[in-house]
Amino acid sequence: MSLLEVRALTAGYGPVEVLHGIDLDVDEGEMVVILGANGAGKTTTMRAVSGMIGRSGAVNFGGVDITRTNAEKLVGMGIAHVPQGRGTFPDLTVIDNLRVGAYARSSDHKSDIDRWFDVFPRLAERRDQRAGSLSGGEQQMLAIARALMSHPKLLLCDEPSLGLAPLITQEVFEVLKKLNVEEGLSVLLVEQNANLALKVAQRVYLLETGTVVASGTAAQIASDDAIRKAYLGA
Amino acid sequence: MERFFQYFFDGLSLGSIYALLALGLVVVFRGTGHLNFAQGEMAMICTFVVWQFNDWGVPLVLSIILGMIVGFALGAGVETTIIRGVAKKSQAGVFVVSIALFLGLNSLAAMIWGSLPPEQLPGLFPDEPDDFQRIFGAVWRYEYIGVLAVALVLMGLLFLLFAKTKFGLAMRAVASNPESARLAGIPTGIVLASSWGIAGAMGALSGTLWGGIVGELNAGLMFTVFIYASAAATLGGFDSPGGAVIAGLTIGVGEQFLAGYFPGWIGQEMKLSAALLTIFVVLLIKPSGLFGSTKVERV
Question: ipTM score here?
Answer without folding.
Answer: 0.87
